[in-house]
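@channel sequence for tomorrow's demo:
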Amino acid sequence: MTGLSNWELPELPTGQIIAGNYVRYLRDNLGLRNADVCGLAGLSHTSMSRTESGARPLSQEEAETLLAGPYQVPESGRRGFARFLSETACAVKHREMLPLAMAVDHTTGWPDRLAALEHRATKACVYAQRLVPAFLRTPGYSTRIIDQPDPIDLQITRPAAIGTRTTVVLEESVLMRLLGAPHLFAEQMTYLIGAVAEQLITVRVLPLDSAVHGEFPEHLAEFLLPNGAKVYAAESDHATYYSGLTAERRMGGFLARVTEASLSQDESLKRLRLARDKALGGDRLRLP
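structure tokens (generated this afternoon):
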């Protein structure tokens, strides 16, 4: 870990951040304190805190002790997390060769580790090009997307709470696709409108004819963590994480540009309501 210099953020190895947030997420969900588990893993209180913040790497032995013991993670999940830690160690070892600090998480339970980031982030910006982000999907909408049996037992779960400082930028094509029966799509639009009304999220719609469309992943998110680090996550059938100042310049800059080019929240809500009303009538939103 590099210290703060010139008022810049520390460049933590991405995998350590993901692993630390994941074990913190597991502990929080069980209502356990740091002091309840650090001794079991053979760690001091300080070492456990640094591990959970991502400042210290989590060893395979420490992870197995925690996950098999107090955190009660099934064997398939423990195997997947062990593979993730192994891949992370390789990414950190060869980090100088990468343009960005990067970690790819495609092992068992990756949605839970991504959910841990979503849950812990103090601020987030999500850009979705074709589908509503997973943490904002109603059950019917999710079922229509994930309509085949999961071949690798991902056991997808998502945190119930939505961060209070989340900006969601939806490309306009998201509002033009009727997934499943029209009433399910109308239900999804109603849920999004309600989340805005309750000030859980801010929604902006990026018009299809906007010039600000780059060669970026269909789903890209920026998470600001409590320790000040920023992590970018691209999601498809796995999660790819990026951190460091290079990622912040490239991906953070992209998210800033698409947000600036998007419609205002008032105009965006009009598009959501129009998409909902069209779906209720059995049709889909079309370009004028």
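heads up for whoever presents: The first helix runs from residue 14 to 29.
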